[in-house]
C-alpha cells in the first residue's frame, strides 16, 4: 500500500505522526479528520475554564458534568467509522 | 486607532483552590486560581474571615493546581499546570509577599492542546514526585527532591504515555514510602476508531491504571490496569502506608472511583466495595438521570480520615472507610450538608471548609460537627452482596435522603463573586451620583443576582446617628496617654464653643477634661507621654496628666488662625501672618522658639508630619498661603523657620497634609513623605517631599469634587492614610504595598476623623450637618461596591427603558421545570395516587437548587427591576415551556410612537442541534408608568428569536438565520422584509440610521442596510474571518467593537468610502448586483485592533466613566472581569507605552511561563492594543529594573509611574 511506502520512505515523518496525535497525512479521510477536529475541540473546551462555564450556563448543567460529558464524547465524537471498501 | 487595556475588576470566579502552609508557618493558606490569576487567601481562624494577601496576574490560562510538600518539610509549594507547555513550581515568599518561580520546566507546545500535558496534576502524598497529564496520551512524571543545600530539585521528565488513550482523571496513590504510584482513568479508542459496526465502541472499557515510579530505576511502569465502571469520572486518593513510628496503617491505600450513581473503592488486587450515591427524593426527580460527583476532598485527622464528596446538585456526602490494616471492611456513605456546587473543596486543619463555587459567591464554612451521630441514614457496602460488586454492570437500587438546611456546617464568610456576568449595562441612574454605575446580571439558576456596581469603597455604618447641639466646625479624636490603644475623647468644635465626648460603652458628654469649652478649637493633640493639647484662637492649653494647665496666650490684637500639631511639635499661624513654633523639651515642657516668622501672606493651611519613632522632631512644615503658594519651612535647629522650597498653585489652598505612606512603586523599604495639598477649587495635588533637600517633586493632581478639599490624617490597617473630603469623600491608603486612592460611597461629610475604639478598632467618624455617625471600611482593596438583588432563574438579557428608569430583564433556565409545569406534574402525580413529599417541594431553591429536568424543559420569566430602589417591581412567569431569549423596547411609529416591550421566546428549545417547537414574539404594552406589562399579542415565528432591536419605528429581529423587520398589527406583528442569508444565527443587533450591524453566532459581524424605497434589507459588508460573536457595540457609524466566545475583543472598521457609497445608493440596486468576495458580501471590514482578554466578553459598552472624561469601551466578562479599552490621544503616548510594554514583556513576569505576546495573541496576533495590566506591573518591579527601563525610555521612574497613573485616572477614575 502506498501509505506503507510513505512511512518506510520517511521514518522521520512516521516518528512525527506517532508523536503528534492528530497530524494529518495524504490519506486522511473526512471521518478521521472530523474525529480529530472534534477531539481537539472537546479537549480545548475542557482546557479553557471560561468555555466550560459558558457551556454549563447555556445547558443548565454543572461544570463538572460538562467536563465529564466532553471527555466522554472524545471517545467517538463523530459516530462509528465508515465501512472500509474491500478492494 | 490604538487602545490601552485596563482591568478594573479582575475575574472573580475560582477554578481551582488548594490549601497548604505556603508561607511555612503553622497558618494554613489557600491558593486559588481565578482562571488567569493566582491569589493567596489567608483565612483568619479566629474571626473566620478570609482576606486576600496577594493577587497576581499570570498572563496565561491556569488549568490545574496542586500543593505538595517535600518529605519532612514544613512548607508547601504550589505546582501549576497551564497552557504554557511548562510545569511551574511556585513558592510563596512571605518576606516580599510574592510568588517565586522555583522551577519552570518546558515539556511541550503552548496552548490548551489535547496531547500537551497541563490539564491534570497529581502529586505523591509524600512529596517525592508529581505527574502532569494531558487530556489524551501524554503523562509526564517529575521526581522532586532536595539537594545538599535543602533546595528543591526537579528531575527531567519520565514518560508514562499511552497512545490513543483519553484520560479522565489522575490521582496520586498513597503508598507510604514505597515507590510513588499514580492512578489514572483511561479510555482507549483504538478499537472503537476501527470498527464500523459500532460494537467496539459499546464494548470500550474504562480502565483504572496504576503507574509506578520506580525510584531505583528512574523509570515509570504500568503496574496494573483493570476495567472499571464505564461512567467513572473522578478519582479520590485514599490514605495508605504505615505511620513512621508504628506498624499501624494509616489507611488501606487505593482510590475511590466516583462513577455515575456509584462510588467504588478500588485497589490493586483487592476486593472492590461499591455504594450508591444517595439521591434526593424529589417528586419531580428525573429517575433516569445519573448523578455524578463533581468535587471531592479527603481529610486526614489523627488516626482517622474521611471524604467529602459533592454531587452536581450541591449535596455533600461524607464517605468513610472501615479497614483493618490494609484490608477494607466497608465503604460507607451518608448525606452531610448542602452547599453551592463547587469547583474545588478545601478542608482546613482549623476546622473550616472552603467552597470555591463554580458560579456565584464563594463560601467559607466552619465545621460544627462531623455528622458522626445524627439520624441521617448511612449506606454501607456491606449491606449489599459481595460489597455491592456482585454484578458491577447493573446499578445498585437507588437510595434516598432528604436534604435539610445546614447542620454540620455554619457559614463563616463569603467572598463575593460576579461570576458569571451574563449581561450588563453601564449608565447613571442614581440621583446623587455623578459617575455611571455598572449593572450586571450575574449568577446561574436560583442563585442568580442582579448587581449594581459603584466605583468606590463600601462603608458600613456602625451606629445610629447621634444628633449634636449645633453644626460643628471640626472634629478630633484623641487618646489620653501615648500608649493607649484606643481613643478616649471626641472633641467637637463649634462656632462659639467646644464639646468633649467620652468614648466608653456609650458616647457621652464629659466636663472637667481640661479643655476650654467657651472657645472654638483649632487643634487637639495628645502630646508627650500623657498630656493633652488644645489650640484655640486665643491661645494654647497644655493640659498635663494631673489636670494642671499651662497656657500660652496670643499677643494682644491677634488670634490664632491655623494650627498643626504632632506628638512633639506645635506650629500656629497668627492673624498677622506670623508663624509661631513650639517644641516639647525633654522635661515635657512646651517651649516657644525665640523668633516668629513673618510670611507676608495670610496662612490658609498648615501641616507637619508625625514624628518618626525615636526622633525628636519632624524637620519640615508645609505652609499654604493666600498668595497661592505652598512653602516648605524647615524646623531643623540649624535653620529653624527658614523657607526651603516653594511651590506655586493654581488656586488658594484649603488644606495641607503631610503623611509618610508606604508606596513600593516609589520606595520598596520605607514610607515616602507625601505632601498632599487640597485646593479651594476641589483639586488635590500630591507631591513627594524629598527628605534630604526638602524639595517638592513628582506632583500629581486629581479632581475630587466641587467643594474645597479638607484633608485628615488617619490610620487604616496600621498604616497612615489620608481622608480627603470634598463633595465626595476619598481615602488614600496603602494596600498590598501600593498606594490607592478611592472614593468612599457615602453622603458627603463636612468633617471626619479616624476613630479607634474597642468596638471598632478602625472606625471613622463622619459628620453631616449636625449628625455624628460612626463608620468602618470593611473591604479595603475592593474598588467596586456591590449591592445585589436575588433573581429566580439565570438572567439572559436586560434592557433599559427610554423614558422611565426601570429595567426589563428576561431570565431562563434550561433543564428546569417552570412553576406551572411543576404544578401540573404534581397534580398529575397526586392524581395517580402517589404520595407527595411536601417538604421537598418547599425547599428553598436559592439554597438547594431546583430539580433537574430533561433537556428541552425550560423555566423562564420577565422581570421589571427598579435599579434605584434595587428591588423587583414585577415578575411575569412564562408558561407553555417557553423560554425568553431576547427583548427590546420599541416605539412603533404605526401606533403614534407608543412604546411596547417585545420579547422573543421559543417553546421546548433544544440547544444542540438548536431547534424549538415554535418561536414567538410576545408584544407587551407598558402600563402604570412601566411597572406593569400587558400582553398585546403573540406572533408565531419559525425559529428562536435570539436578537431584537428597535429600528426606525419598527422592530428588527434576528430569528435564527433570518433578519426581519416587523411592523405592529392588530393581532400580530407583521413581517415587512426579511434577509435570511446569514451564516448561523443572529446573536446581536446594533443600529444607527438605516444601517444594522448584525453579530452572527459564528460568522463575525455583518453590516446590513435597509433601503426603504425598495423595502430591501441588504448585506453589504462582512468580516473576512469567522468569529463566534458574543457582544457588539458600534464605536461610530463605520466601526464596530465585538467580543467572541474565545475571549477576544476586536475592532472592525468599514472603509468610509464604501460606507458613503452605500448610503448614497437610494435603492440598493448597486449592492445587490455587486460581485461577492470570498463567498461573502462585496465589501470587507478591516481589523483595527485585536486583543485576547482571557475571559469571554458578554457585554460591551461605549461610555465615559468620569464626568466630562473621554469615552472608553467598557467590557464585562463571564468570569467577572470588568475592563476598559481606552483610545490613546497622541502618537507620543502610543510610542511611549508600547515601548514600555515591550520592555515589560522581556521581564518574563508570567508566573506560568507563558509568553505575554503569545497569550495576548492567543487566536489572532494582538493588534494595536497595549496591555495596561502588564505595564502597571512596572510599579512592582525591583528598583534597579525600574530605573533601567525608565532609562531606556529617557524618562525617570517617577515620570513613568505618573504617566501610568494618569492613563488610568483620566480614563476610568479608578
Automatic annotation (TrEMBL), chain A:
What is the originating organism of this protein?
Schizopora paradoxa
The text of the family note is: Belongs to the SF3B5 family.
- Domain of life, per UniProt, equals Eukaryota
**PANTHER family documented for this protein:** SPLICING FACTOR 3B SUBUNIT 5
Q: What is this protein called?
A: Splicing factor subunit
GO process annotations (BP) = mRNA splicing, via spliceosome
Q: Which GO terms describe its cellular component?
A: precatalytic spliceosome; U2 snRNP
UniProtKB/TrEMBL annotation, chain B:
Q: Which Gene Ontology CC terms are recorded?
A: spliceosomal complex
How does the record describe its quaternary structure?
Associated with the spliceosome.
InterPro entries (alphabetical): Beta-prop_RSE1/DDB1/CPSF1_1st, Beta-prop_RSE1/DDB1/CPSF1_2nd, RSE1/DDB1/CFT1, RSE1/DDB1/CPSF1_C, WD40/YVTN_repeat-like_dom_sf
Functionally, this protein is described as follows: Involved in pre-mRNA splicing and cell cycle control.
From the broadest rank down, the organism's phylogenetic lineage runs:
Eukaryota, Fungi, Dikarya, Basidiomycota, Agaricomycotina
Q: Name one Pfam family in it.
A: Beta-prop_RSE1_1st
- Is Cell membrane set as a keyword in this record? no
Extract the SUPFAM superfamilies matched here. Answer: Putative isomerase YbhE
Location in the cell = Nucleus
* Keywords associated with the record: mRNA processing, mRNA splicing, Nucleus, Spliceosome
* Record domain RSE1/DDB1/CPSF1 C-terminal: where: 859-1179
| Protein name, as recorded | Pre-mRNA-splicing factor RSE1
The chain positions of domain RSE1/DDB1/CPSF1 first beta-propeller read 14-376
Source species of the chain: Schizopora paradoxa
Transferase keyword on record: no
Q: Which family does it belong to?
A: Belongs to the RSE1 family.
Gene Ontology biological-process annotations: mRNA processing; RNA splicing
Q: Which GO terms describe its molecular function?
A: nucleic acid binding
**Residue span, RSE1/DDB1/CPSF1 second beta-propeller domain:** 464-777
Give the top-rank taxon of the lineage listed in the UniProt record for this protein: Eukaryota
Amino acid at each position: 500500500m502506498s501509505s506503507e511506502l510513505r512511512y518506510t520512505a520517511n521514518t522521520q515523518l512516521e516518528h512525527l505522526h506517532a508523536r503528534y496525535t492528530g497530524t494529518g497525512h495524504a490519506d486522511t479521510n473526512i471521518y478521521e479528520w472530523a474525529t480529530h477536529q472534534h477531539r481537539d475541540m472537546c479537549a480545548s473546551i475542557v482546557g479553557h475554564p471560561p468555555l466550560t462555564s459558558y457551556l454549563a450556563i447555556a445547558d443548565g448543567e454543572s461544570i463538572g458534568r460538562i467536563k465529564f460529558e466532553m471527555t466522554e464524547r472524545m471517545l467517538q465524537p463523530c459516530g462509528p467509522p465508515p465501512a472500509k471498501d474491500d478492494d | 486607532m490604538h487602545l490601552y487595556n485596563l482591568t478594573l475588576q479582575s475575574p472573580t470566579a475560582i477554578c481551582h483552590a488548594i490549601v497548604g502552609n505556603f508561607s511555612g508557618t503553622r497558618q494554613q493558606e489557600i491558593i486559588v486560581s481565578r482562571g488567569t490569576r493566582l491569589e493567596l487567601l489567608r483565612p483568619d481562624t479566629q474571626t473566620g474571615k478570609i482576606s486576600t494577601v496577594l493577587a497576581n496576574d499570570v498572563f496565561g490560562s491556569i488549568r490545574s493546581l496542586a500543593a505538595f510538600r517535600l518529605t519532612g518539610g514544613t512548607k508547601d509549594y504550589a505546582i501549576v499546570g497551564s497552557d504554557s507547555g511548562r510545569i511551574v513550581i511556585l513558592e510563596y515568599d512571605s518576606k516580599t509577599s510574592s510568588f517565586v518561580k522555583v522551577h519552570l520546566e518546558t515539556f511541550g507546545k503552548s496552548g490548551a492542546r489535547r496531547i500537551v500535558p497541563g490539564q491534570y496534576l497529581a502529586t505523591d502524598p509524600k512529596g517525592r514526585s508529581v505527574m502532569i497529564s494531558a487530556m489524551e496520551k501524554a503523562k509526564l512524571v517529575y521526581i522532586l527532591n532536595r539537594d545538599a543545600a535543602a533546595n528543591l530539585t526537579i528531575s527531567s521528565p519520565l514518560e508514562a504515555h499511552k497512545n490513543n488513550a483519553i484520560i479522565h482523571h489522575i490521582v496520586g496513590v498513597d503508598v507510604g514510602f514505597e515507590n510513588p504510584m499514580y492512578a489514572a482513568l483511561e479510555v482507549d479508542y483504538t478499537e472503537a476508531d476501527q470498527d464500523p459496526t459500532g460494537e467496539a465502541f459499546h464494548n470500550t472499557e474504562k480502565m483504572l491504571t496504576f503507574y509506578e515510579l520506580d525510584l531505583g530505576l528512574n523509570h515509570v511502569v504500568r503496574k496494573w490496569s483493570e476495567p472499571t465502571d464505564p461512567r467513572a469520572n473522578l478519582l479520590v486518593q485514599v490514605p495508605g502506608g504505615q505511620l513512621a513510628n508504628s506498624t499501624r496503617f494509616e489507611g488501606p491505600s487505593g482510590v475511590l472511583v466516583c462513577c455515575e450513581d456509584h462510588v467504588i473503592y478500588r485497589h490493586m488486587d483487592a476486593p472492590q466495595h461499591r455504594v450508591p450515591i444517595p439521591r434526593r427524593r424529589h417528586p419531580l426527580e428525573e429517575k433516569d438521570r445519573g448523578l455524578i460527583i463533581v468535587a471531592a476532598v479527603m481529610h486526614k485527622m489523627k488516626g482517622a480520615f474521611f471524604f467529602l464528596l459533592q454531587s452536581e446538585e450541591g449535596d455533600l456526602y461524607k464517605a468513610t472507610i472501615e479497614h483493618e490494616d490494609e484490608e477494607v471492611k466497608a465503604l460507607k456513605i451518608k448525606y452531610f450538608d448542602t452547599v453551592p456546587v463547587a469547583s474545588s473543596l478545601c478542608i482546613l486543619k482549623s476546622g473550616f471548609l472552603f467552597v470555591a463555587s463554580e458560579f456565584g459567591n464563594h463560601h467559607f464554612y466552619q465545621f460544627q460537627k462531623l455528622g458522626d451521630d445524627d439520624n441521617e441514614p448511612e449506606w454501607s457496602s456491606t449491606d449489599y452482596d459481595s460489597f455491592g460488586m456482585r454484578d458491577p454492570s447493573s446499578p445498585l437500587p437507588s437510595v434516598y435522603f432528604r436534604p435539610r438546611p445546614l447542620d454540620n456546617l455554619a457559614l463563616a464568610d463569603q467572598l463575593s463573586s460576579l461570576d458569571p456576568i451574563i449581561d450588563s449595562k453601564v449608565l447613571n441612574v442614581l440621583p446623587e451620583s455623578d459617575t455611571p454605575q455598572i449593572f450586571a446580571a450575574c449568577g446561574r439558576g436560583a442563585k442568580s443576582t442582579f448587581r449594581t456596581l459603584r466605583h468606590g469603597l463600601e462603608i458600613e455604618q456602625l451606629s445610629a446617628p447621634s444628633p449634636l447641639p449645633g453644626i460643628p466646625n471640626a472634629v478630633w479624636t484623641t487618646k489620653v496617654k501615648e500608649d493607649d490603644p484606643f481613643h478616649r475623647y471626641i472633641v467637637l468644635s463649634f462656632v462659639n464653643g467646644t464639646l468633649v465626648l467620652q468614648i466608653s460603652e456609650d458616647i457621652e458628654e464629659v466636663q472637667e477634661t481640661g479643655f476650654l469649652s467657651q472657645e472654638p478649637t483649632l487643634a487637639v493633640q495628645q502630646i508627650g507621654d500623657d498630656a493633652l493639647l488644645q489650640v484655640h484662637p486665643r491661645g494654647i492649653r497644655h493640659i498635663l496628666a494631673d489636670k494642671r494647665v499651662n497656657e500660652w496666650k496670643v499677643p494682644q490684637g491677634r488670634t490664632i488662625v491655623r494650627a498643626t500639631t504632632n506628638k512633639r511639635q506645635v506650629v500656629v499661624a497668627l492673624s498677622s501672618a506670623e508663624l509661631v513654633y513650639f517644641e516639647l523639651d525633654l522635661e515635657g515642657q512646651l517651649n516657644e522658639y525665640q523668633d516668629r516668622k513673618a510670611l507676608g501672606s495670610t496662612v490658609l493651611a498648615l501641616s507637619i508630619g508625625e514624628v518618626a519613632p525615636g526622633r525628636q522632631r519632624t524637620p519640615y512644615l508645609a505652609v499654604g498661603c493666600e498668595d497661592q503658594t505652598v512653602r516648605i519651612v524647615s524646623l531643623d535647629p540649624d535653620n529653624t523657620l527658614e523657607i526651603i522650597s516653594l511651590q506655586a498653585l493654581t488656586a488658594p489652598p484649603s488644606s495641607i497634609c503631610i503623611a509618610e505612606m508606604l508606596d513600593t512603586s516609589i520606595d520598596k523599604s520605607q514610607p515616602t513623605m507625601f505632601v498632599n495639598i487640597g485646593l479651594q477649587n476641589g483639586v488635590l495635588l500630591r507631591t513627594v517631599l524629598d527628605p534630604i533637600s526638602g524639595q517638592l517633586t513628582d506632583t500629581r493632581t486629581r479632581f475630587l469634587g466641587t467643594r474645597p478639599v479638607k484633608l485628615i490624617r488617619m490610620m487604616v490597617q496600621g498604616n497612615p492614610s489620608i481622608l480627603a473630603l470634598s463633595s465626595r469623600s476619598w481615602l488614600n491608603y496603602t494596600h498590598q504595598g501600593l498606594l490607592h486612592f478611592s472614593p468612599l460611597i457615602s453622603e458627603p461629610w463636612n468633617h471626619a476623623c479616624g476613630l479607634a475604639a474597642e468596638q471598632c478598632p478602625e472606625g471613622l467618624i463622619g459628620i453631616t450637618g449636625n449628625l455624628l455617625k460612626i463608620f468602618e471600611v470593611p473591604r479595603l482593596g475592593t474598588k467596586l461596591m456591590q449591592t445585589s438583588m436575588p433573581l429566580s432563574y439565570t438572567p439572559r438579557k436586560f434592557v433599559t427603558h427610554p423614558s422611565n428608569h426601570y429595567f426589563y430583564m428576561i431570565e431562563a433556565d434550561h433543564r428546569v421545570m417552570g412553576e406551572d409545569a411543576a404544578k401540573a406534574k404534581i397534580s398529575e402525580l397526586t392524581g395517580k395516587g402517589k404520595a407527595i413529599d411536601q417538604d421537598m417541594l418547599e425547599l428553598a431553591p436559592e439554597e438547594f437548587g431546583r430539580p433537574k429536568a430533561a433537556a428541552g424543559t425550560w423555566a423562564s420569566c420577565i422581570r421589571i427591576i427598579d435599579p434605584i430602589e434595587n428591588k423587583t417591581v414585577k415578575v411575569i412567569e412564562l408558561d407553555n415551556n417557553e423560554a425568553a431569549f431576547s427583548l427590546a423596547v420599541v416605539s412603533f411609529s404605526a401606533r403614534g410612537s407608543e412604546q411596547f416591550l417585545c420579547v422573543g421566546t421559543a417553546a421546548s428549545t433544544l440547544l444542540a442541534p438548536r431547534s424549538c417547537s415554535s418561536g414567538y414574539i410576545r408584544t407587551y404594552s407598558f402600563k402604570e408608568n412601566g411597572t406593569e406589562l400587558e400582553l398585546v399579542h403573540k406572533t408565531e415565528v419559525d425559529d428562536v428569536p435570539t436578537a431584537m432591536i428597535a429600528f426606525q419605528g419598527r422592530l428588527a429581529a434576528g430569528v435564527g438565520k433570518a433578519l426581519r423587520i416587523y411592523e405592529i398589527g392588530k393581532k400580530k406583528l407583521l413581517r415587512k422584509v426579511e434577509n435570511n442569508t446569514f451564516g448561523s444565527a443572529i446573536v446581536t443587533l446594533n443600529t444607527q440610521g438605516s444601517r444594522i450591524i448584525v453579530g452572527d453566532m459564528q460568522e463575525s459581524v455583518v453590516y446590513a442596510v435597509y433601503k426603504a424605497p425598495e423595502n430591501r434589507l441588504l448585506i453589504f459588508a462582512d468580516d473576512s474571518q469567522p468569529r463566534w460573536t458574543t457582544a457588539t457595540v458600534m464605536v461610530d457609524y463605520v466601526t464596530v467593537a465585538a467580543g467572541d466566545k474565545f475571549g477576544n475583543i476586536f475592532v472592525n472598521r468599514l472603509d468610509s468610502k464604501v460606507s458613503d457609497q452605500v448610503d448614497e445608493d437610494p435603492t440598493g440596486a448597486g449592492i445587490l448586483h455587486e460581485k461577492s468576495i470570498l463567498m461573502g458580501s462585496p465589501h470587507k471590514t478591516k481589523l483595527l485592533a485585536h486583543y485576547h482578554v482571557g475571559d469571554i466578553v458578554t457585554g460591551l459598552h461605549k461610555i465615559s466613566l468620569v464626568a466630562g472624561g473621554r469615552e472608553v469601551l467598557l467590557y464585562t466578562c463571564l468570569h467577572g472581569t470588568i475592563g476598559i479599552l481606552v483610545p490613546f490621544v497622541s502618537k507620543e503616548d502610543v510610542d511611549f507605552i508600547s515601548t514600555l510594554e515591550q520592555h515589560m514583556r522581556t521581564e518574563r513576569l508570567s508566573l506560568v511561563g507563558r509568553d505575554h505576546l503569545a497569550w495576548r495573541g492567543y487566536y489572532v496576533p494582538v493588534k494595536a492594543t497595549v496591555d495596561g495590566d502588564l505595564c502597571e506591573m512596572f510599579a512592582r518591579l525591583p528598583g534597579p529594573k525600574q530605573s533601567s527601563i525608565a532609562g531606556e525610555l529617557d524618562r525617570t521612574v517617577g515620570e513613568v509611574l505618573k504617566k501610568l497613573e494618569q492613563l488610568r485616572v483620566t480614563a476610568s477614575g479608578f
